[in-house]
């Protein structure tokens, strides 16, 4: 047994990785990793991707245990879609502040004010909020989901006002009623910061996540979910890209596209809760089988229907990368 006090950082991490992979087999676990996770967590992924791809992957997961390296709402969705599996979130405090910007009471009030409107919830919501909604969406299918609501002229879109505005631009025949929610990480970037980066790398295309402010989206060459960025870059003619989303994306993009250049406009683009998951916590999670995320009862039944409706509209095509570690 290696003594962790005598290992340098690289050896320490390699040591943890070995232990995780051994324990993963023993416990019949699969490690699902969001694209914003730390580099070393991306390296131990069985499946990595964006929120939609990870929901689809969770449905197909062939294991007793899912270790979800992401934030709380993602583990909740995995539990709702896999009631017979144990879903572990290595760090219990890894939440999404945007998901906490809408309450059940607040949403019920909004529904009273707009009784004719359908409620579309971004996947970045709690299970209780999903249970109050008609259909879910992610950043990769939000436009498609809202367009699919043929019987509705009005849509309450919760909680991200920036994604909601982007949907409104792409679905002009419906009225999108916005909620005042936002991602505290993505709104830290202004278009000045992005234009500065463009001055330094004039040949680079600007690719932004729809959670960014409208002034950033208006100067972008492409607006994509994190999985959408991977797909676009793979076949794009351009060789350089300014990536306006969370920093963790650079590691995966560089690894998958060795001949291309990627720049982040500011190091403000770090999601603190996505970065809470470390190799140490993943190992602890497998050893102790903590922290289990389990949604049950009426909330589970209702939220399941809302997620399932989305998966049906989206089709089964997954943007997940299977790494086969
Ligand atoms: P994606 O679905 O694009 O991966 O986004 C998830 C998220 O939390 C963005 O901030
Ligand atoms: Fe939530 Fe923003 Fe972090 Fe995504 S990047 S998990 S929306 S806080």
Structure in words:
With 325 residues, this protein is of the alpha/beta class. It has 3 domains: 4-95 and 276-294, NadA-like (Rossmann fold, 3-Layer(aba) Sandwich); 99-178, NadA-like (Rossmann fold), CATH 3.40.50.10800; 186-270, Rossmann fold (3-Layer(aba) Sandwich). 41% of the residues lie in helices and 15% in strands. It is built from 14 helices and 13 strands. It has helices at residues 9-27, 39-42, 51-60, 72-81, 104-113, 127-131, 142-147, 161-170, 191-200, 214-217, 226-235, 249-256, 279-288, 297-314, and strands at residues 29-34, 47-49, 65-69, 86-88, 118-122, 135-137, 154-158, 175-178, 205-208, 222-223, 240-244, 261-263, 321-322. The strands form 3 sheets. Strands 4-3-1-2-13 form a 5-stranded mixed β-sheet, sandwiched between helices. The chain has a 4-stranded parallel β-sheet with strand order 6-5-7-8. The longest helix has 19 residues, at 9-27. The radius of gyration is 20 Å and the shape is globular. It starts with 8 loop residues before the first helix and ends with a strand. Mean pLDDT is 94; it is low at 317-325. Iron/sulfur cluster (SF4) is lined by residues 71, 96-98, 124, 183-186, 211, 246, 271, 273-274.
């Amino acid at each position: 047994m290696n003594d962790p006090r005598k290992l340098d950082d690289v050896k320490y991490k390699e040591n943890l990785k070995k232990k995780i992979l051994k324990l993963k087999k023993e416990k019949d676990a699969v490690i699902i990793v969001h694209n914003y996770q730390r580099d070393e967590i991306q390296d131990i992924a069985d499946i990595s991707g964006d929120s939609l791809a990870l929901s689809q992957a969770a449905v197909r997961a062939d294991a007793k245990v899912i270790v979800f390296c992401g934030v709380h709402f993602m583990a909740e969705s995995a539990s709702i879609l896999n009631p017979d599996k144990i879903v572990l979130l290595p760090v219990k405090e890894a939440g999404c502040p945007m998901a906490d910007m809408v309450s059940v009471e607040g949403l019920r009030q909004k529904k009273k004010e707009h009784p004719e409107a359908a409620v579309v919830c971004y996947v970045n919501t709690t299970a209780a909020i999903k249970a109050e909604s008609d259909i879910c969406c992610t950043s990769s299918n939000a436009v498609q989901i809202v367009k699919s609501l043929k019987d509705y002229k009005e849509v309450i879109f919760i909680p991200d006002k920036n994604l909601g505005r982007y949907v409104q631009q792409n679905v002009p025949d419906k009225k999108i009623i916005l909620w005042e929610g936002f991602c505290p990480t993505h709104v830290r970037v202004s278009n000045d910061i992005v234009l500065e980066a463009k001055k330094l790398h004039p040949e680079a295309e600007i690719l932004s996540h729809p959670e960014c402010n409208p002034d950033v989206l208006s100067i972008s060459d492409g607006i994509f979910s994190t999985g959408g960025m991977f797909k676009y870059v793979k076949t794009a003619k351009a060789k350089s890209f300014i990536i306006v989303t969370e920093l963790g994306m650079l590691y995966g993009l560089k690894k998958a596209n060795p001949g291309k250049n990627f720049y982040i406009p500011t190091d403000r683009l770090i999601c603190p809760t996505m970065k809470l998951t470390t190799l140490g916590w993943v190992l602890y999670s497998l050893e102790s089988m903590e922290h289990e995320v389990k949604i049950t009862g009426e909330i589970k039944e209702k939220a399941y229907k809302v997620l399932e409706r989305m998966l049906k509209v989206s089709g089964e095509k997954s943007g997940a990368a299977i790494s086969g570690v």
